[in-house]
Amino acid sequence: MKKNLEKPLAEICRPLNLNDFAGQKKLVSPGTFLWNLLENHKLTSIVFWGPPGTGKTTLARILCKEANIEFTELSAVVSGVGDIKKIAMNTQRVHGLFIDEIHRFSKTQQDALLPWVEKGKLILLGATTENPVFSLTSALKSRLRVIKFEKPTDDEVRAYLKKSLEILEGYSGCEIDFKEVLDSIVNSSGGDLRKAILLLEDCYTVSNENEGKITITMNDFKKISEMVVGNYELKKSDHFDCASAFQKSIRGSDVNAALYYMARMLEGGEPPEFIMRRLLVCSCEDVGMADPMALVITQNCFNAIREVGMPEGRIILANAVIYNATALKSNAVYTACDNAIDTVRKVPETLIPEYLKSIPDKRSEEKYIYPHVRGSKKISYLPRVLSKEVFYNPSSQPEVDRLKKLEQWQRHHHTSTDLNNLRERVQQWILENSENLENVHTSDISDSLGIPRDIVYRILLDLENEGKIKIHTKATIEILIS
């Protein structure tokens, strides 16, 4: 008859020595630092840093056991300075102190460990899922060795599950077949051994026993997998790592990766508003003026999600993700902004042109010219010392075309409406360049004088009709009358 487990299966199957320890071959193989510690039955203060369910607590216990050191476990969530002092004061010999989630200790609590670790009275073994570079004080880090744990491979998880099944069979007195769900458990665990064992335990709990045999089926797995939340958790590292991968996928135009990280964040409980804020940044920083509609669509999707809510809002969110991921990309807006800020910091005391001030000096010779008047002279708006600065450099074809269109419009708009004046300027240019009038195009004259090409062409035709010049093929102008 199937027995109920009196203790969690993860605790029952916890390895007691390195031979049964799963994963982390780079850390515990012969010749490694930890292996040499075990060989010599010695121990030193260490912080184990890595994802949950990778064996940090288990390895700490094995190390203390092999070094024949008394061992106390504390959790940083419920322990404090008083607990540390009590352990240190009541021990007569070197004592091993394991602190789980040590990153949760405040600076003061971490500093309380220093004298005992410094004297060697306590050998500190810490476990953290957060990067010690940011979560531990410099003083404590200088007294510890940091060892990084990696997620076990699928093969290592699979092997650990098979060993655990043997223990479960011996404990339950039943023959258990879980081949049908083995790969599903491995895939759902995400490299978390504790989670893998928990899934196996849950499958065992809901399975049916028949004459001393238990076959765990996909139906059993589906019963418990509906309650399983993905490995993504709302803790600092996963929160920012997933968001970073999401934004980089958008930037790299990988729509499938972007959708995956979106789904992973949603399944982990991330508010859709956070994801949309990231998308709003992407639509300006990474898409920008290559597709100005990206910002409009993203903002509209944001508003729609607020109106509709979840879970239907996920469809609207996916719409914005797909649009931004598949849009043309340009970071020209981002670089233009930073270029301008950088210039302001380098040259902070530049004088604003007098004619641009709210109350300009009436004695100034330069006057502001209202740009909406057709034929008005184009003026400079940057401070004089920065007149040649260029902050915005379009990097996509739509941006280049947009800028060219603006330049063409400005050339027409700011050209004087006095055709006689323009005619005299064109004639003067022809006379000044009389020795080199072969392969001359209207664009040459237009660019040189700042007169629109169509007006230049009209003036040239008038001059030819008047017999003053002759336009040959291959854009050659011949002067007939000086």
What topology emerges from the helices and strands here?
Layout: H1 9-12, H2 25-28, H3 33-39, E1 46-49, H4 56-66, E2 70-75, H5 81-90, E3 95-100, H6 107-119, E4 122-128, H7 132-135, H8 138-141, E5 145-148, H9 154-172, E6 175-177, H10 179-189, H11 193-206, E7 209-210, E8 213-215, H12 218-225, H13 236-251, H14 255-267, H15 272-287, H16 293-308, H17 313-326, H18 332-346, H19 397-413, H20 419-432, H21 442-449, H22 453-465, E9 469-472, E10 476-479
Parallel strand pairs: 1-4, 1-5, 2-3, 3-4, 6-8
Antiparallel strand pairs: 7-8, 9-10
Helix pairs in contact: 5-6, 9-10, 9-11, 10-11, 11-12, 13-14, 13-15, 14-17, 15-16, 15-17, 16-17, 21-22
Walkthrough of the structure:
This protein is of the alpha/beta class. It has four domains: 24-148, 3-Layer(aba) Sandwich (Rossmann fold); 154-225, Helicase, Ruva Protein, domain 3; 236-326, Zinc Finger, Delta Prime, domain 3; 419-479, Winged helix-like DNA-binding domain superfamily/Winged helix DNA-binding domain (Arc Repressor Mutant, subunit A, Orthogonal Bundle), CATH 1.10.10.10. It contains 22 helices and ten strands. The protein has helices at residues 9-12, 25-28, 33-39, 56-66, 81-90, 107-119, 132-135, 138-141, 154-172, 179-189, 193-206, 218-225, 236-251, 255-267, 272-287, 293-308, 313-326, 332-346, 397-413, 419-432, 442-449, 453-465; strands at 46-49, 70-75, 95-100, 122-128, 145-148, 175-177, 209-210, 213-215, 469-472, 476-479. The strands form three sheets. Strands 2-3-4-1-5 form a five-stranded parallel sheet, sandwiched between helices. A three-stranded mixed sheet has the order 6-8-7. A two-stranded antiparallel sheet has the order 9-10. The protein is elongated, with a radius of gyration of 37 Å. The mean pLDDT is 83.
